[in-house]
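Mods, move this if it's the wrong board.
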Amino acid sequence: MAFLPRKRSFFTIIIFSLALVAYTDYSRQEPLLFSLGRSDSVAAPVPPYDHDSLTPSSVAADHPNLKQANILLVSSFFPLSNSKHSKHSLRDYTRWLTLFLSRIDKDIYLFTPPEWESTIKSMRGDLPIRINTTYSSPFDIPPLIDHREDYELMRSKDREKHRHSAELYAVWSSKPFFLKEGLSNMRRQKEYKYAFWVNSDSFRSKHPWHSWPAPERVEEIWNEGSEASGTSVDELLFFPFAGMPHGSMIFWSEGMGPIDNDFSQGSFFGGMPNAVSWWCSAYYAYRDHWLKQHHFVGKDESVNNAILLLYSSKVIGTWLFDPLAPAAASLLSASPALSSYDVKHPPPSLLLDSPLGQCLDHRHYYLFFLASSDERAIMAELWLRKWRWMWPWQWLRQVGVQKEPCRLTRVLPLERTLKERFWGEGWSSPGSQVTIRR
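Not the wrong board. Structure tokens:
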């Protein structure tokens, strides 16, 4: 028994050494969190990449036809008066705003309080922007100006009321109005084929996005979406999907109110001017209808989810965790870990990365999806190189695993997807009793 401490010490040293070797190997190459099994082949080395050396002109040089389809991006920046109801610090939000404004070359229309105008201009530099300081608060816009008290009262119905405020609900609820208003104001001087809302905090790390969204890519998505959905391009609305509706939603109807599922994402959406105008009218028509019925309408994504089910034929999107996507087929078939993959409940990102490879920014995959092929290639390489912390036994498990770059997936037409893969051909969007006035 006298030798037990020495044996334990020796055993500890061995384990620590193995972990150190695994850590060293890991720090040189990004292990694949999405388990694909062992491979004897070695991934091709990724060339070094210096973000600061990638100037806007160098990114755009290979795209002579970038302006073939005029695209407008609309956003807002309204810091909350009470920081405890912000999910992140003001410092984080301003850093992310800078990553957006300092690099994206598309025309931007941004709503913000007057006191932020000079800061926004400084962030944007010489790139095109129109700043609207008409509203000091989202509660000042026409669809919200008479509803401050309603938003204060509904907070008691929010399951996350400890971290949300009426002011935050107003920020979320203002997006459809701001998108339509920004587009209407800018069209007095220039015609736009597409307009998109994008959250000002969507760009959360250094990135190669510059000519984003890529016009040629947007055109490709709309043509593919129209063919797959049977809906004309001018009526299509694009939303990224975080998942698919819970199975119980097959029984959902309009009178049940907003759907609090992790389904659509509200950080990016849009389409052609006709679709943008329709969405604004539809959103506030249903917001008002459900508010009168005393439903909670503070979260834009919950309201969005319900309207998307009611008008699913108009909706296209992208879903990173779509396991039946052709781009994911080879990865899924090679992964023992996904032999019993549940398409309705994708695995948590802590355990797996994605069915499309190393796509490390799950909530913002749409940035990759809408980018040009050249900029996607740069980001895929960056994600392969990115070091992510893992526990020692994770390092050991991943040594020698073949890495896969992030892949581009297909456009998903919502109605067809729900019918073919979830609820059957007999399902149809629930009937709507609400009048949408344009």
